[in-house]
Amino acid sequence: MDDTLMYRREFFIGGRWVAPAGTERLPVVSPSTEEVVGEVPLATTADIDRAVAAARSAFDDGPWPRMSPQERADVLARAAELLRKREADIAGITVDEMGCAISQAKQAQTGLVAPLFDYYADLIRTFEFRRTVSVGERRGLVTNEPVGVVAAINPWNAPVTLAAWKTAPALAAGCPVVLKPAAESPLSTFVLGEALDEAGVPAGVVNVVPGGREVGEHLVTHPGVDKIAFTGSTGAGKRIMSLCGEQVKRVSLELGGKSATLVLDDADLAAVLPPLVKGGMHLSGQVCGAHTRVLIPRAHYAEAVEIAAAAANSVSVGDPHDPATLVGPLVAERQRDRVESYVASALADGARVAAGGVRPAHLPKGWYYAPTIIADADNTMRVAREEIFGPVLCLIAYDGDDEAVAIANDSPYGLSGGVWTADPQRGLDVALRIRTGSIAINGTYPPFPAVPFGGFKESGLGRELGPEGLRGFLEPRSIGLPPALF
After folding, report:
1. How much is the pLDDT for 414?
2. Domain 259-448 fold
3. What residues form DSSP beta bridges with 8?
4. Torsion of CA 341, 342, 347, 348, to 10 degrees
5. What is the pTM of this model?
């Protein structure tokens, strides 16, 4: 990639590229080569203060919250056009900074970026920001006001996609945004900032400041921030929620998952399991909504393990720059260590490895791990209850639909899930019993971004995408109208 994209010297704050307050720089290390491929300045609390001040000024005194929805929509539509032109840049950067296989980049890194800005541009042209309500002789005006300054804190696995999920609806609502990308993948988010600036977003409405955990907490607790929009681990989400609770600060959380996919007893295993296994390896399994618990009828369990293992063994693992590669490296050495520790715990608990469970021998450099199938797992094991964030699927046996639903719901999480069956109506009936935020039937996912995404239980709070995603950045207000205004 071009060095101008990979080596950043400044932050984007207040509509300008500005020098950092500190001198510390953050090297960006390629997960496939273990070599430094880029660098960004590391934000200090002073940089966060500058970014929040710029956003605060843009909200309190700037034009963006006071523009008509149609005017904001025009800017969002221009941003969509510009982001389409930058898709190759975004994809190429993420291959280098977090190891996304280029074959997965369209789906994970760019496919829901420009379309999301188009979606919210179209939505706010017709959205009812104001309505009049009459009850008897009384009349009131209900308005939907922008919540204020938004801090968008994003993870490393789909940096621009998940930043867009927050930024597009926040901007549509009239809210300025301070974007804090993850330290592992900070570079691609600057492209989003550049596109929004070129589209005509006023100064201070979008700010990009990469930083670590300390400045993240400073941003969360900053009195100038009105809402936190966070995607990341459940542990980090709990910490953020507690900090926001002290200030009664608005917060939305898209957190972890341990989603179950139910293969019913009438499903064709040979047709179902290979794409299911392949889907579970998307982004090397580093996806919060991955279907990592695969529930199999006990009578068909042995056959299912054999098919799933063969499917996992056939998945191509290697250089993420190679279009033939499906599974690239994990984002960091610590992440590979984490995956290995979970596989070891599964073996200690009595499960077995049916495929994978090792570092690929042909890839001595880079943080790779082979696609792995854990057999003889049960739902009480750590490997089946905790989010691994790696290319590991657990196959769990069940007897009857009722037990399958009970196992699926026996989880602290509730983010995603799936049902596979020869009878679509039966699949819908089972899906309606699962306590989770989104479900695919026979691999058919809901039509994002027009519908909400988010989780039940410890998988989060609030929703992104859809009209619900816009409402999360709005505060309803009621005004009584005296008769003279009727």
Report:
1. 98
2. Aldehyde Dehydrogenase; Chain A, domain 2 (3.40.309)
3. none
4. 70
5. 0.96
Type of residue numbered 457: K
Annotated active-site residue 254? The verdict is yes
Q: What is the CA radius of gyration of the chain?
A: 23
Beta-carbon-side half-sphere exposure of residue 360 (alpha carbons within 13 Å): 24
CA distance 357 to 369: 8
CB 259 within 8 A of CB 287: no
Q: Which tokens go with 342?
A: 């979970």
Question: Which regions in the chain score pLDDT beneath 70?
Answer: none
Alpha-carbon distance of 226 to 215, in angstroms, equals 17
Question: What is the structure's pLDDT at 403?
Answer: 98
Residue 56's SS3 state is helix
What is the predicted pLDDT for the residue at 106?
92
Among 97, 184, 254, 464, the active-site one is 254
Tell me if residue 94 falls in helix, strand or coil: helix
Amino acid type, 366: G
For the chain, helix, strand, coil in percent to 5 are 40, 20, 35
CATH topology of domain 3-255+460-478: Aldehyde Dehydrogenase; Chain A, domain 1 (3.40.605)
pLDDT digits over 115-151, tens only? 999 999 999 999 999 999 999 999 999 999 999 999 9
